[in-house]
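Hi there, hope your week has been kind to you so far. For a while now I've been wondering how a particular protein folds. I'm sending you its amino acid sequence along with the backbone structure tokens. Could you read through the record and tell me how the tokens relate to the sequence? Take your time with it, there's no hurry, and the full record follows here.
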Amino acid sequence: MVRSGSIDGKEWSVTLTFYPDAPVGYPSADADTGDKADRDADGSSGFGGGSRPEGLSLLCQRVFIGGVQVDHQAGPWAGCAVVDGRDDFVEGAGLHGLSGKGTSGTRIFVGNPAPGTATARLTLDGGTVRTAEVVTLPGTSYRAFALPVADGETIASVDTFDGQGNRLTHETYWD
């Protein structure tokens, strides 16, 4: 569990799960496993029509709002990405919501920060500040933090900090 809570009267949570080997049922391009929901729009598994790589590992980051998984329409592997073992390079951030591509309604800001990042701070236009600790998935180098954004709130900035409180990043394009 990365984090969970309640906002807008809805329970929310973010989980991060690492699979060192692809789980049974994960689709491959050379076998017709799973149903149509398990596949990309072109009907493939996402490996460009080739066979599934050997030693395939998966990292699944799943966001739930009000008991509904964001992007659940994409099938059981929504939120999963192929990674190269326990210590692949994964960084990024995004707003996740159940409507409007995360631009409206209740949303969860999820970040996958660089090594050495200890905390994140989200500042809203009105001055409200929310903070979160960065969680590292045990046995891996994969990290994440999650911060809720209520319906009608606008993000002014997102900052990350190291363990000594030194600011590492300052982003202002999350509106």
